[in-house]
Amino acid sequence: MSTPLQPLVRVTTGLPCPSFPLTILAFWCLTEAQMDEMADWYHQASPCEWTHMYPMRMGRGDREGEGENGENGGLWEREAGLETKRRRVGRFVGLRGCESPVVEDRKEGRKRANRRAREEEERAMRKKWV
């Protein structure tokens, strides 16, 4: 938790956001207001010429502004919940494990479950014969 984070700098000034967390613990202690401040600081809350100058976007979707469900967007959403904001800020600053959750296709999920069941059955049979 005391692992230091290297602050990102604002494209226009070269200064880090005053609310930028300097450790992993500070990241987990960020408030919604601080995350909103970071979105404003890094030009992610409203589109401008600097919005796309950062390696990652804070909003939904990818860097090019394509939303998760195909809609255009990609900007910061002040109405989003605390955990959603934390995940998006974490992804923006480069933390692992902050990717958007992937909804698994039901068919693929069933295939994976069936495969696991077959593997378990094969292991049990091998044990029985050994």
Written description of the protein model:
It contains four helices and no strands. It is an all-alpha fold and 130 residues long. Helix 2 packs across helix 3. The longest helix has 24 residues. About 8% of the residues have low confidence.
Key features of this structure:
0% strand, single chain, 130 residues, mainly alpha
Contiguous low-pLDDT stretches (5 residues minimum) are 62-72
Radius of gyration: 20 Å
Order of helices and strands: HHHH
Q: For the terminal residues, how far apart are their CA atoms? A: 47 Å
Query: Care to count the β-strands?
Result: 0
Give the amount of beta strand, in percent. under 5%
Mean pLDDT: 82
Count, helices: 4
Q: What percentage of residues falls in helices of 4 or more residues? A: 25-40%
Rough outline = elongated
- Biggest pleated sheet: none
Query: SS-based structural class?
Result: mainly alpha
- The assembly state of the depicted protein chains is single chain
Summed up:
It is built from four helices and no strands. It has 130 residues and is an all-alpha fold.
Question: Could you give the topology of this structure?
Answer:
Elements: H1 24-28, H2 32-41, H3 82-93, H4 106-129
